[in-house]
Amino acid sequence: RETALWMVACLLLASLPRGQLDTTCHAFVGETVVLPCSTTPPGEFTLSKSKLYWQIGTKLVHFFHNGQDSLEGQDEKFHGRTSLFLDQMKHGNLSLKISNVQLWDNAEYSCLYKQTENHPIKKSTIKLNVSAPPRIEEPPSPSEQNQIPSGSPMDVPCLAVLPLSFLLLVPLGLWH
């Protein structure tokens, strides 16, 4: 019941007018990206008493409370692709790792956390820009390599040899 109330509070907080972005991250489709979030001020984070909620608008991306992940309500597009740095959380690193980034991951993420019941909910906003990977041109097949059209760059080195051979022949006295 307490978890449900806290999740509602996070949704309400996330729906408030947006302030400045804390960070913008960039990734290509298929890559792994880390969205940064840390406690302010940095310091000890009591895992068993804390709550961490990553979301896009009202979509749950990752939820952590009572010292463990709680992903029952996680948006299915993120299933199996998100993780936290559990060994670093106690030191205030609340960053989210998203594996196999997809174009639909392009969004503004909110990191909401509460260290203990007595602390206020804190929010950080991170924009993730996702791009398609750059196209890599395939080298021509061996049959295409033999078909060099006239006037292609392959003719240029032959032209560059003429002035060089002329310069070598003059000092040798072979050119009259």
UniProtKB/TrEMBL annotation:
Keywords: Cell membrane, Disulfide bond, Glycoprotein, Immunoglobulin domain, Membrane, Receptor, Signal, Transmembrane, Transmembrane helix. Residues 1-21 form the signal peptide. Gene3D superfamilies: Immunoglobulins (2.60.40.10). It is found in: Cell membrane. GO terms for biological process: cell surface receptor signaling pathway; cellular response to lipopolysaccharide; immune response; negative regulation of T cell proliferation; positive regulation of T cell proliferation; T cell costimulation. Coiled coil: none annotated. Residues 131-151 are annotated as: Disordered. PANTHER family: BUTYROPHILIN SUBFAMILY 2 MEMBER A2-LIKE-RELATED, T-LYMPHOCYTE ACTIVATION ANTIGEN. This is VTCN1 inhibitor.
